[in-house]
């Protein structure tokens, strides 16, 4: 099956700093989403982005499908941004989550 | 609030027992997918249902089975529970091939 790798695995930021999370996938995909998982396990939708660039407040994302990667940008980070970020891809009715990036934002 | 509701939120079962987890999809959605998330790992795809038919399956044994009802709600059944089945079980609903929205999950503990 398709391999989905995220980097970095862990990230510690000072409040107010910017960061870039990366998601690489090993084959063509139909769909790609970014999620934030809160401490209670709820997956919060951030972006549905099979290709192109989208922005939502302090967050933005870019997917370059031809080069098989996606980036999630977090600007002016806040403590509430802490948690695990997952990208997930869909191909051939199979869904694959990445390994996740654990983000800690310290005041 | 995604509109996807799972029940129960927590459950404790004994090894060898059977369990049924439930998921109510968001209004208008016809596709439900189920995932297993072990502690410290990413969610693993179990299967997907589209209009009451299984539409895709991950690498899980047949003792993991499911149903989708005419109102597009869904059940996940697991027979002959094993200790390794302890995990957070997540369901997601969507229109086919579009953005998926997740429920809050059911945390299953097998003892």
Tell me about this structure:
- The complex is a heterodimer of chains A (about 110) and B (about 110).
- Chain A is an all-beta fold.
- Chain A is about 0% helix and about 60% strand.
- Chain A is built from no helices and eleven strands.
- In chain A, strand 4 (about 30-35) and strand 5 (about 45-50) form a beta hairpin.
- The model of chain A has no long low-confidence stretch (mean pLDDT about 95).
- With about 110 residues, chain B is mainly beta.
- In chain B, the strands form two sheets. In chain B, strands 2, 4, 5, 6, 9, 10 and 11 form a seven-stranded mixed sheet that branches. In chain B, strands 1-3-8-7 form a four-stranded antiparallel sheet, with no helix packed on it.
- Chain B has strands at about 5, 10-15, 20-25, 30-35, 45-50, 55, 65-70, 75-80, 85-95, 100, 105-110.
- Classes of the chains: A mainly beta (about 110), B mainly beta (about 110).
